Amino acid sequence: MVTLALLGVISGLITGVSPCVLPMIPIVFVTGGTSENQKTSSRPNWLRPVLIIIGIVISFGTIALLGTLVLSLLGLPTGLLRWLGIALLALVGVSLIVPKVAHALEKPFAKLPSWTPGHSDGVLGPLLLGLGLGTLYVPCAGPVLAAISVAGATAEIGWQTVVLTISFALGAAIPLAFFALAGASMTSRLGAYRRRQRAFRLGGGVILVAMAVAIAANLPATLQRLVPSYTSGVERVIARQDAVTDALRPAGASGPRIDLCAKNSGNIADCGAAPEFSGGGRWFNTSGQPLTKAGLRGKVVLVDFWTYSCINCQRDAPYVKKWYDAYRSAGLVVIGVHTPEFAFEHDAGNVGRAIADEGIAYPVVQDNNFAVWNAYRNLYWPAKYLIDGAGNIRATAFGEGNYANTEGNIRTLLRQANPSVTLPKAVTGGVDTVSSAPTTPEIYLGAARGATSYQGSGDLTTGSGKMFTLNAVQPVDTFSVGGRFDVAGESITSVSDAHVRVNTRAAKVFTVLSGTGTLRIHSAGIADKTIDVSGTPRLYTLIDAASAQRVLDISYTPGISVYTFTFG
């Protein structure tokens, strides 16, 4: 627990000194120092900024862990908390400029002695102000915070996740506390402030209103893009630490022993009994009958987690199909677990068509509620779990690659289950290749996860008919949007004059689309390409070329929903 908390604090501290903190610096500096009656206050001058920071920590941590889940349950837009924070910031600014507004705000709370937000004696006021400001600090997210948000959104919240969230929030608030205390110290010591307190409060109010307008227009993102992301590498290292991974792994039935296989992926080990396939939905290729552990006794089972629009899963599938064809007569059973990433992948008809299109003959269970996923404490697409004849998990494989090793493990377990079995020659090889060159990570375009790769003008939050402008120069591994789009949590849908610009490091570029229409792709050095979009939402190939580095300009006719870009 101590290690986990320490890693959380360090990760939060690194986020707190990253470019994402820049818009918050003038806000906490001003709010921490602009209070009335400091000279006659009975409380120490550091109390107000400390209360504001405590409010930010509570709000920031709570929203990071529960914000997406609560808003989803209430059917509220994902950007609601951010806009409430902006409104509060503007209101505080106006109250500093116009004293009558401040007095009007205080009237409903006049009987509460701990209120008085404009006075240094107040307790509740600064705390509530911090709670509001915390809604504006949530977008400052690195890998650890992103994983915390996913855990909250799927309601997979254990004590380790809570410890990591609290420690992360505390670490992220430390740099802000420095600036808030500096503001309070300056205003308490400067005689000029005491003589011209009204002018300083007026200036502070102007700064807060200006920052509210700037944040609403997403102007701080421009400044953040100009400052190098000097902390991203360190954040990724911390996110890969065992203590952090353990905290964010789903608390499934298989318990900690399955994590031994996960941490030593590729090696044969004893990782405990495999969970049942209970809780899943419809079964395919079994005449609708579910498979059970008891019915699979004596068989070697390969459990393959996949989702049909995932390009990594599509590249992985030929190996799984070859193994099934080669070894099923020797006792191998393959079970595909289709755990959806997008809403349209919940549809059984879409899944059935994908199974037919891929030529998958082995059993597949639809895992829409993540029951099997959580039982295996899984984190990845694709992911493979090998179960021996006694029903124990013995090996894992995550992502693409290392296929010869996985096939070797299959052969080992088949011989252990039946020493007299005759196995065919190994079949791995010649199906596909896995590039070892640096490749752009998967890019999501919806409001829920698009912010990690979005670098453009306009606020990528949910809304209808939103107008955007393309970047003239697009940084590598990012995208921008131009024209008018409807923005949802998982996707953006073209409305008019719709364009996306993405700078990639990949010879192959794919995209997940739904709707009906046409898109046109332009990239220097290759011929323009037109693709018709219709039918079942699925993965489309945009580029398949020799060179890797390129900027793609893609135009869309109205009615096309764009979910993600993937690369190879």
UniProtKB/TrEMBL annotation:
It is found in: Cell membrane. GO terms for molecular function: antioxidant activity; oxidoreductase activity. The chain crosses the membrane at residues 6-29, 50-74, 80-102, 123-151, 157-181, 202-221. Its main location: membrane. It comes from the Bacteria. It is a multi-pass membrane protein. Coiled coil: none annotated. GO terms for biological process: cytochrome complex assembly. InterPro entries: AhpC/TSA, Cyt_c_assmbl_TM_dom, Thioredoxin-like_sf, Thioredoxin_10, Thioredoxin_domain, Thioredoxin_ResA/DsbE_sf. Keywords: Cell membrane, Membrane, Transmembrane, Transmembrane helix. PANTHER family: PROTEIN DIPZ, THIOL:DISULFIDE INTERCHANGE PROTEIN DSBE. This is Thioredoxin domain-containing protein.
